[in-house]
Structure to design on (535 residues):
């Protein structure tokens, strides 16, 4: 308790330094007066008593300094003094300050903006349960140089039985229009199987998602009385316009529609292996299975299927199954671009730093007089360096603050500009 | 003179607080000069003390809430800040005295064994 109490007292004294100094001065001079009285009583003259009193007291300034160190947190007090001084100095040279702050704001702002994207896209794991087990499955026809040719329904069923995945779901990106509100909007959707959300292990922010218990056997071969499940992820919506159906926050809709558009049976029946209408598969590996091990099992599966159905998998086309971690397949195309961008803004920041350093050097050569006076008054080299460092830190902080301000403003303004 | 300096002892680190508290308890509220004078008197000038060095200790004790300072007049009408020991200070004095006794007892025992 007493340490805490002292800490509070010390913090209090940070801001009452001059008052505490006056109080100490009064106390010291009272003390000296008492000493002088005593020495005079012993028969000294006034002058002798005065000298003797100072001798008995010891170094007055040293004692005051000890008192300061004891009553307050000295380095913090000095830092405050430096900060005050730095503020005054910066305000006195507005041209330098504005240029320095703007340069810093540019460099820091660009870096923060790009890093925000890099952090969200590349560094943070996908927001799902055990994201490292999520994979995409692709069918390739290496013999004819075709990648990602899609899957046919029997192939998906084979994958399901391959003892490699816990869950899997077909996915089907669709670009379409959403009408029904006061205006029609272009949206990006993802058609999925019923087990999509279970595969991801994701929970809806709002409402209910479809799961395996909603499944209708053979739903992929849609008939007019079967329901088609859709997740409509509305990719970009200005917050001010609001959702057409006003059913939620407006960023994500999960809607369930009757598949009027698919009412005619579009798929041949019985399904043919080589007719690959399903564009993609996302799956969750069984626990403990690495991507390499799973890939080996899929290679074996592909070989087995090629043997069983030689007509549908001609050896010349070299049909193969390929696994890719979901994270990689999501970010793979933008990764090099983002890395290049990050490096570029890193260099911008470097140039900003060099620029600012030379500005500061120019400024400090104009301040040699001031620094010389400080040295002469007894400031140590370290103390002067600390003061200059405090100034630089203050400048960087103001620059960073300006950058944050610009970023926040741009975040505020960008959707509005987009809405127009 | 060197021999004279030798016979005077420096205040042991950390004992000044104890000495001040003890002085304030037995003498009642005192100003810094009074405390210093008392110390010199008791130690029969054996204890060499720059009186200014009392102040850091006083401010430390006051911040810990063990003593409390108040401006007043001396008998001869001079201004002086009088320090009085507080309740917390009395309690702390008890504890510190206990600690000191243990410590000095230990040192005494060690020294006796050595000789």
């Amino acid at each position: 308790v007493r340490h805490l109490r002292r800490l509070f007292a010390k913090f209090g004294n940070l801001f009452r330094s001059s008052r505490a100094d006056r109080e100490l001065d009064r106390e010291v001079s009272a003390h000296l007066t008492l000493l002088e009285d005593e020495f005079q009583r012993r028969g000294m003259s006034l002058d002798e008593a005065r000298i003797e009193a100072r001798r008995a007291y010891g170094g007055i300034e040293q004692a005051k300094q000890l008192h300061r160190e004891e009553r307050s947190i000295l380095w913090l007090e000095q830092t405050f003094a430096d900060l005050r001084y730095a503020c005054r100095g910066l305000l006195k040279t507005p041209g330098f300050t504005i240029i320095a702050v703007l340069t810093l704001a540019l460099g820091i702002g660009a870096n923060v903006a790009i890093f925000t994207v890099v952090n969200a896209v590349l560094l943070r794991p996908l927001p799902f349960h055990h994201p490292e087990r999520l994979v995409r499955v692709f069918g390739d026809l290496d013999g004819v140089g075709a990648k990602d040719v899609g899957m046919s329904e029997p192939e998906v069923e084979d994958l399901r039985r391959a003892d490699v995945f816990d869950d899997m779901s077909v996915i089907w990106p669709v670009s379409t229009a959403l009408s029904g509100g006061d205006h029609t909007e272009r949206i990006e959707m993802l058609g999925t199987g019923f087990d999509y959300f279970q595969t991801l292990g994701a929970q809806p922010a709002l409402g209910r998602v479809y799961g395996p218990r909603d499944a209708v056997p053979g739903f992929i071969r849609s008939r007019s009385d079967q329901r088609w499940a859709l997740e409509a992820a509305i990719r970009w919506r200005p917050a001010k316009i609001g959702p057409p159906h006003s059913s939620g926050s407006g960023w994500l809709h999960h809607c369930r529609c009757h598949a009027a558009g698919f009412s005619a049976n579009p798929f041949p029946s019985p399904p043919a292996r080589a007719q690959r209408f399903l564009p993609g598969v996302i799956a969750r590996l069984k626990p403990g299975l690495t991507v390499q091990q799973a890939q080996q099992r899929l290679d074996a599966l592909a070989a087995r299927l090629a043997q069983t159905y030689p007509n549908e998998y001609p050896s010349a086309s070299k049909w193969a199954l390929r696994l890719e971690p979901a994270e990689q397949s999501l970010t793979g195309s933008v990764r090099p671009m983002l890395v290049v961008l990050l490096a570029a803004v890193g260099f911008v920041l470097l140039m900003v730093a060099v620029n600012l350093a030379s500005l500061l050097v120019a400024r400090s050569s104009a301040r040699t007089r001031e620094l010389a006076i400080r040295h002469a008054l007894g400031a140590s080299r370290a103390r002067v360096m600390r003061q200059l460092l405090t100034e630089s830190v203050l400048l960087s902080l103001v620059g960073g603050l300006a950058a944050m301000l610009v970023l926040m403003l741009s975040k505020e303004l960008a959707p509005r500009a987009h809405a127009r | 003179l060197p021999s004279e300096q030798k016979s005077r002892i420096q205040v042991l680190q950390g004992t000044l607080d104890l000495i001040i508290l003890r002085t304030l308890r037995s003498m009642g509220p005192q100003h810094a000069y009074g405390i210093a004078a008392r110390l010199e008197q008791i130690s029969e000038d054996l204890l060499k003390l720059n009186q200014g060095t009392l102040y850091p200790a006083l401010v430390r004790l006051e911040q810990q809430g063990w003593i409390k300072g108040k401006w007043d007049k001396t008998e001869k009408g001079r201004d002086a800040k009088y320090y009085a020991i507080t309740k917390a200070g009395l309690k702390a004095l008890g504890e510190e005295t206990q600690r000191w006794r243990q410590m000095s007892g230990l040192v005494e025992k060690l020294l006796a064994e050595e000789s």
Observations:
- Chain B has a mean pLDDT of 82.
- Helices of chain B lie at 2-7, 15-27, 32-42, 54-63, 87-114.
